[in-house]
Amino acid sequence: MKRVLVTAFCIAVLINPGSLMAQGGSSAVYVHNTTATPAQAGADGVAALKVRTLFSVLDSAGMPAAADIDHVELKIGQDRYTATFGKPTGQMAISILVDTSGTLAASPDFRRMIEGLSKSLDRMPDNALFTIVTFDTVPTMIQDFTSDKEEVRKKLLTAVNAKTGAKPCLNDGMLEAVRRVESASTRKAVIVVTASQDGCANTSIQAVVDEAVNHATQIHALGVDGYAVNLATLEKYTKPSKGLAYVRSPNDLIFGLSNMLSGLANQVEANWTLYPPKGEQTVDIMVVLKDTTALPGQITFVSDRVYEPPAKIELIGEVRTTPGNILVNLTLVNRARIAKLQARVVDKATGLTSLNLDFPNVQESLAIPATNLAKDGSYTLDIAAVDANNNVVSRTTPRDFQFKPTPLQIAIASVSAPSLDAPNFVVTVTTPGGIAGIARYKAWLEPEQSGGQNASGPIPGTEAFQSPDLPIVIPGADVPSGAYLVKAQALDGANQIIAEAAKPFTVTYERPGFFDKLAHDLGRSSVAVVVLVVVAFLALIGFIILIRVARARSRVDVRVVEPELDRRHHQAAASDRSQVIIPLAESVSQSMNQSPVVQSGSSTRFSATLAAREPATLQFQMKISTARVTLGRRDGNDGVIKMDSQSGVSGSHASIVNEGGVWYVVDANSTNGTFVNGKRLPNNGRERLDDRSVIGLGPKVKLEFHIQS
Known about the structure:
This protein is α+β, with helices and mostly antiparallel strands.
C-alpha cells in the first residue's frame, strides 16, 4: 500500500509540480547570479548602471516553485526601483553528471535514479542544450550538446551503466561537467545525481567551486539517501555556486528530480536601471506576489562610479479605494528633486477631470481624497512629479480603475515584550489588503482594566511610529510590570487616521529585577564574574578585619567611678538641666522667626530638557532655563533643528513657554503642523506639556520633553 501511495504521489508531481508546490506557500527568494553593466548615456545625457539578477522563489519546503509575481523592487538610500522581470532569454547550457561508480553497481536504486532522471527531462527549460557526463574512476562524456530531449533520454537509458568496483571520482566528474558548459555565452548549470562522495582525492572541492564561480555556473545536486553522500557535502559545491542541493530516498527520486529540474525552468530574471553610489553595493530586494505576499532577498554588485539619477516616479501595484480615499504606492527616484506630486483623476465616461490635487509632502504611499467620485464609476489616474520650478520632471503611466470603496483593515499580528536582551516592545502589524495609502503605523500601550477594558488612554512615552515595512518599536525602559493592551493605527501622508486595528493585543510584562539583571550580565561576561569574585573576596577580608578590631576594643579596661565623683556628676547634671530650658525656648522662637519667606516679585527658576527622538540621524538636545524658548530650522531660534526643508520643520516652527509653573508648546503658524503625543495643534494653538511628552515638528521630527525636578 505504501508503494502505491508513493507512486501516486510521484505521478501527481509529474503532472503538475507547480500547483503542488503552491500548496506549501512561497517563503523565500534564492538569488543565483547578479551582474552589473554600465550603460551609455541617453539623449538626456544621464548614464545608468544596468543590473541583472537571476533568482528562484522557494516554497516552505525549500523547493523551487512557480510564483505569480506582481513586481520586484529594490531600494538604494531613499530611492526605490522596480524591475522588468520574466523568464530568462537565450538558451541554457546544462551538463548532466551521473554517478556510475561501484556504489550503485549492485543495487536496483541505480535504475531508479536513471529512470527518474529520464522521466524528469520534460521539466527542464525548453530552450536548453544538454550534455551527459558520467563519473566513476574517470569522467566520460556520453552525449555531446543537443537540444533533443528524446536523444538525451535514449542515451541515459541505454548508454549509462554502473561499473562494479569502480572508484567514485566525484570531484573529477564535477570539474569536467563545469568545463563542458563554461564556454557558453548564456546561462550555465550542472545537474549532479550521485550516491557517492569523492573517493579519489585527485581534485579538491575548492578547485571545482572556483571553476564554477569564475564562469557563473550554477551547480545543482541531488543525493540518493542511504549511501555515502550527504546534504552537508553537496552544499559545499552548490552554495558557493548559487545552486541548490537535496537528498532524497530512492523511492522519492522522481519527485526530487522533477522539482529540481523544473526549478531551472522557473528561474526569474529581473533587470533594473539603477543610479547607485560608487563601490560595492549590498541591497535588499523585495519580490511581491499577486496576493501581496512580500518575499525578501539580497543582492550584491559593484558600481564603477557615482551615478546621478534623474527624478522619476512609477505607480506600482493596484489602485485601491476606500470610502474616503484612492490609495496608491509609488517608487520614487531622486526624491530630492521632487518638490510635490500632482494627482489627476479623469472620468472615463465624460472625459472630464474629476480631481486635480497637489501633494507637497512627497511620500511613497499616497492617499488621494475621493471627493465627488461615483461608486462603481470608471476613472483614469495619473500622477506627475513636479520640481521646485514647477516643471513636470516625471509622470506615471495612466492607470484605469473603478471606484469600489472597501474599508482598509489592519491587524496586530504579534507583540514581543521586553527582555534583558531586547529592552523594547516590538509590534508587528499586518494589512491583509496591502499597504497602499499607508504612510506609517502608530502603536501605543494602555493599561488593561478588568474585563479587558481600559479607560485611562495611552501610557505617556509609549506612543511610537514606524514606516509600514518595519515592526513598531515601543520603548520599554520605563514601563512597570503589568498587563497591557497594545493598540495600532494606520496613518496617511497627512497624519490622518485611515484605519485602526479592530482588536487590541494583550501582553503581560514582568520587569526584570536586580538579581535577574545581575545573573544575565554575569552570564554574558566572564570579566564581570571575575570582578564579582574579587569584590566578594575583598568584602570577606574586610569583614574579618572589622571583627578583629571590635574584639580588640572590647578588651580595653573600664575605669570604676568613685561614689563621690558619681554624686557630684548627678548634681552638675541637674544644674545643667535647669539652665537648658530657657535657651531651648529661645532657640525654637528664633528658628520660627528665621523661616524663609517668599518675597513677591522674586525670580522663578525654570528647568526642563528637550532631546531628539526621531529621526535617528537628528542630533539635538537642549536645556530650557527661561520662561520661553523658540524652535525652528532658522538660525536665531533658541533651539535650531538642523534639518533640510523636506523634513517638514518650518523656519520658525513653535515655542515652549512656562506660565504659572505649567509648560505649554505653542504652534508658530507652521506649514506642517505641531503635534503633542500624536495630536495635531490648530495653527497658532497651544497644548499643555507633561513630563515625557513627545512634541512633533511636522510629520518626521519628534522631540521628547522632560521636566527637571
